[in-house]
């Protein structure tokens, strides 16, 4: 595949993970989820905005009966340093005794997922697992069991396939890595 570079705001990015690889990895995740969730009717909670493409491509490939809801998180002042999720917005479903699968674009420090897991636990779901498109294990600051990871990456800033740099880049079908 021909490498491409793009400019978003003041930064340059080059192609890193192509759409074909993304879809192949998502297909493998969907197969695992199908095996693990037979007769469990999972409820997927896709965390907006970043997970919209991942959620769509994953759910097209999951064949067990399931439901999906799209949530947003509001946080205390500086979630990046506290990890405190104040509110889960858009969750109208009753999750008590449900099997929940959180869908995330990327797990970096793990603050977001850690905070969300704490919030969801208050509502007594039967189980909660996390499925993420990308994970940066070097950056993780919490003991998190992330069961479904499509791809691990080093500590590089990436955009595309739902991920943004200050609002731009979410529409890109491949994932790009920052070069400068
Ligand atoms: P956390 O550090 O695991 O809480 O990640 C928080 C959020 O930061 C993710 O859901 C993404 O929206 C964003 N994020 C982390 N790393 C990147 C990246 O490399 N590119 C774009 N967004 C990122």
TrEMBL record:
Associated pathway: Purine metabolism; IMP biosynthesis via salvage pathway; IMP from hypoxanthine: step 1/1
GO biological process, one term: GMP salvage
Chief location: cytoplasm
Catalyzed reactions: GMP + diphosphate = guanine + 5-phospho-alpha-D-ribose 1-diphosphate; IMP + diphosphate = hypoxanthine + 5-phospho-alpha-D-ribose 1-diphosphate
Gene3D superfamilies with a match to the protein in the record: 3.40.50.2020
Protein family membership: Belongs to the purine/pyrimidine phosphoribosyltransferase family.
The name this protein goes by in its record: Hypoxanthine phosphoribosyltransferase
